[in-house]
Design a protein that fits this description.
Helix content is 14%, strand content 42%. It has 164 residues and is mainly β. The strands form 2 sheets. Strands 1, 2, 3, 4 and 9 form a 5-stranded antiparallel β-sheet that branches. A 4-stranded antiparallel β-sheet has the order 5-8-7-6. The chain is globular and about 60 Å long. It starts with 7 loop residues before the first strand and ends with a helix.
Length: 164
Amino acid sequence: MSTIQQGQLVELHYDIFVEENGEVHPVGSTREGEPFAYIPGVMETEPPGLGEALLGKSTEFSGQIILEPKDAFGDALPPDQATAQVALSSFPEGFPLEKGMMFEAEVLGQGVVLGTIVEIQNDSAIIFYGHPLAGKTIRFDVEVLNVREASEDDIKSLMQQYQG
């Protein structure tokens, strides 16, 4: 049986679900578009725990991968640190402020964390800090489509794709 190893190009589709209060909710999928592709050992998946869980799996793997918060998007920030009201003047000039926009911010005592604009008021924005799925158990329903040795062109192409 062939297994997924570092240095291989892995293409797959997945559906992502979150468990909350005993209920399972869908939060995303790759099935309507191009397959997700990555190369273990060259780039990480988001979240990194997904790629780690796939290493050593059959190249024909189809099934569920369940990630606890620490392996998925990390622990949620404490409620007193999770939201803040920030003056619009604190953002760089020309920064595209709109509800739902996500960005990275340096948070005292936490380092760089993901921020989401929840609301824009007159001269301030309400920001939620942390990944929206932080603190949650995540389930991926995965279907591996293709696994082969990655070429230099594969590496260059994916690095360009994921770095913008």
